[in-house]
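Narrative of activities, Objective 1.

The group set out to show that a structural description can be obtained from nothing but a protein's sequence at a throughput compatible with the screening campaign. Below is one input-output pair from the validation batch, recorded exactly as produced.
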Amino acid sequence: MKNSTELLRGVSRTFALSIEQLPGLLSEATANAYLLLRVSDCLEDNETMSAERKSNLLRIWADVLDGKTAVSRLTDRITDLDSNDPEVHVAQNAGQLLEWLYQLPVPLQEIISSRVRRSTVGMARWQDHGPYVENEAALDDYMHEVAGRVGYLVTDLFAWYSPRIRERKEELMPLARQCGLALQTVNIIRGIPKDYERGWVFVPETYMQEFGLTRDTLLDPDHLEESMLVVNKLTSKAVRHLNHGLDYITLFPRRFHGIRLALMWPFFFAVATLEKSRGNNDVLLAEAKIGRDQVKNIILQTKVFGWSNRWLAHYYNQLAAWPGREIVTLQKYGVARG
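Output recorded for this entry:
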């Protein structure tokens, strides 16, 4: 059995980098929460299971997290999945994850199990719903379950860690949800072809109807121009959420540089990915993603300058050259709009 660090790096090097910036016990707790969520993700995203089976397993996992049933009730039912898949390996070792959870202080156990359970129940509900999204409200509902609640979870953990952060929790919570929705919207944009292959289309049907498209014609090369207009609508939505993300990060006191870095990196990776995706046909034909050099540059610059809120606002403007400069006016940071 691998240790938690090895498991974490196996399923996400990006989030592993972020989580490893957190101090001591907070890093351990966040890593555990992330891995427990990956069990839920494994059940939701598996390409071989039926929606009915996924829904059933997700609800069993929710009961496990709620202490209502033994973890073996889940793990015994997923022995047929390919353990060479790192995410499946995590799910099949859910019992070990729970052992690590129970070694944490009780308040952390309660935060993590409660938040992961709620997200898992939401995923099950969406498996029952089916692989389509009617409108933007439905999209927001789905993204809240899989990402907005994660924003709540990490904010709860950070508030447990520091009284200074706890004082700002009421202001942080709605921004945490926005930040989660921002990252998930970018994930949806860059994952359109792969999601389609596994039978899911997260693009709202109302978006497609506006340009005379359906889920069956969205990826048709003959309709590429119309499809990119749909992507543009999703891009504008992502921008609206991202504009709140910077406010979330800068609410954390500057002396918590490790926490801020852990938030900055996925945020700025998403900003750069969205800029890479904007107007890029590869979003629909292949995949649009940022390169390692840009990832390294983001990490280096934020490590050196990320303590400054004014610099963060400037860097956001620099990375996010949206059409019409849709970025929020960041006068409160003393940064002129570019």
